[in-house]
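Hi R.,

Here's the chain you asked about this morning:
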Amino acid sequence: MQMVLLNAKTTAPQAFAETVERERLYDLLRSNASKQVTLIQAPAGYGKTTLLSQWFNLLKDPVAWLSIDDADNDPIRFWKYVVHNVSESTKTDINEILSPLFNLQEQTSLEFLIDSFLSEIGSIPQTLHIVFDDYHLIQNEAIHKMMTQFIEYLPKNVQIYLTSRKDVLLPITKWRAKSRLKEISMEQLRFTFKEVQSFFHQRDITYRDAESLQYVLEKTEGWVTGLLLASLATKDIPAERVISEAIDSKHPFITDFLLQEILVTLSPSVQEFLVRTSLLSSLEPAVCDALTSRTDSYDILLELEKNGLFIVRLNSNPLVFRYHHLLTEALQVELRNRFTKVQVLSIVKEAATLMRENGDFIAAIELTLNEQAFELAESWITFHLVDLFTSGQTTTFMRWVQIFRSNNFPVPYEMLVMDVIALIAVLEIEEAGLIMQELEYRQITEQWMDKSENQAMATIYEKVKAFVLFGMDGNMEQAAEIVRKQLEKETVSSRWDDIPMKYNLFEHKILRTNVGAKGKLVSFEQGIPFAKLFRESTFKTQSINAFSYGSSAETLYEKNYMEEASEELELALQYGHQFKDPGLFIPMYILKSHIYAMKKQFISAHAILNHAIENVKEKHWVTSLQIMKAHCYLLEGNLLQAKSELTHTKSRHPFWLLVHARLLLAQEQVGDALSTIISVKSKATLEDQVSTIIEATTLEAICHLAMDNEEAALTALHEALKQGEPYGYVRTFLDESAIIPLLTKYLAIRQKKEQGHWNTVPLSYVEHIIQSGDKKKNASILLTPRELEIFALLKNGSTNREIAKHLFLTEGTVRVYLTNIYGKLGVKSRTQAILVN
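And the predicted structure, written out as tokens:
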């Protein structure tokens, strides 16, 4: 389900006709165009939003506006709104281009989303203005990180505006020091004497003389809301009364003043309307009619606007308003003063139901939770649970579950299981573990998994446990046992069955994803039995099985089993196209082209990539394929074409950065290459991306070697080997031809027993890598595990018949295996094969 995007949140409020033009502030906004970030910070009622709405009326450039509320503390919801707004205001298809990336919430994928967004808006020919109104309401650290990344790498054609009542959790001091920031403070927003004069003149409010007006200014301290309150309080006061008397109030608090001086002047009918509709996030006449049981909401809203009563027009056709935040707060206080708790709860439920029927189920649930109508909130969350996950708003869901738990409200099993899944997705492993402990305890005390109504969720939960044991803890035996038990049970369908799982949104390698264990390769002893569980069971038609082929292909390639890797690769490609999942087939095309390139078959490598580019729609996947083309050109020695491809695909993804580092190395810009590599390595270390750490550290060694710093090169190589040895990495080293001489040097030092602290890397592992790169490869490297079994029996003198009997094969199958073995070893007979080491 697509997330419902509300126009009321994405429309710049319309300035009143009688609003005072503030040229001195326009000059501040107009000056220093090189400062791309404008922060307008002041308490409520100082005209932050009004200033920007006036300012944009003077411009012809596109403006993307987001009015933030508490529900926007969800990275996916927040950035979907931003991307949608930009796409609408610039009349581009950026929202469609980026829509495939709005599925996962782990930090790496969110960073890639921002990088992709920056790339798209950088190509817009106009100056683009993006407004984040009321940014102080954002408390989510992930959004702050994304916003920081967004602003740090902002294209020159983009201007950012942040309004806030208080300090924002962004690196403001840093931006200020770098002269990137314009700031408009409360002091600057205060009205001057001339502006106060214009303010009362436009509202036809009389005052006795300049001194009395100066008194007004001093009394309000130029606070625009104070001026507005004064003007409202004096509407029925005779002109001869001094206006200062009206604002010399005994009511020090804005809420009291609004209620006692403004609200009481209105008719009881209008007061009732205001109080009841204060719960609505946006005011549409039809919704207001339904909530207040009247038919004249349209006229009332227009009259309120005419009288300037703290109401903001968001849209004219159809007519949509919202109350100023100050008025909303005051009215909701009055709501609780006028009605009993039971009556308030009834009004809340009615308002929330109307919001939900109007398409905004998020705001409806937020309202019920705020008023602790937990039973209703739980029923709606349960109903919309699939929608929340398919629209990517899992952060919102996790926050709701936390509200239930902190209020000791019993959370349904389905919500708890999905909460575990959501927490794992954002790598909140400790919190997910606590929920799992609760589910395990409740199984002991309540046997919830044994009850028929919970069978579907119990099955899903068991799969989650298997994933945690395998992907997070590396405990493959327990994971396999859970899967076996699941296979013995009868399949139970649920509403989650048809929800496609996205295991890879943008990575060029399956091994960089969670399902690929971030490069932590498994041994054949562990991997083969586990893979068989998927390939020989009901899992074989599911996408997780398809990804097991892709992960297997990359693992086999890395361990230097080339033929087997190619076989798995083709099956993964077949599955990828069957499931229409570019997250599977694009990495396989990249791997296939890489294999061709390492064989110096560059025409075939480029042909594979060109074919893939022609058959994929998503721009970020096309970019990955083009980066691989640049890598192939580098391997060919065509630096000019490689540079051209990289220039057109510039990115901050490690794939692009490491290929670019290789280009810099080839251009003898070693210092720049090393700086890039170190930054990639540092980030990969934070993310525990093993494959990238090993690749970057290997390139680091090559850089040091190019700088004639052999000691540093050997140290970096040792570090790479230390990272790679537990997982059996081979090709990452062999694919960098410049590393082979250094590996030989490293081995010689180790054989002489120098550098004893390097013993943390087994010598046999280093010898294995070097032998794998030698043209005279031995049988243990060339042959598959099954072929090694046959080869061992062959060397012991067993006949074809004896081999077949021992391994439960036919003699014909043995002959086929022997033909393959002879071919791999480069021999023509049994006798020659026996002589091979």
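The longest helix spans residues 429-446.

Let me know if you need anything else.
M.
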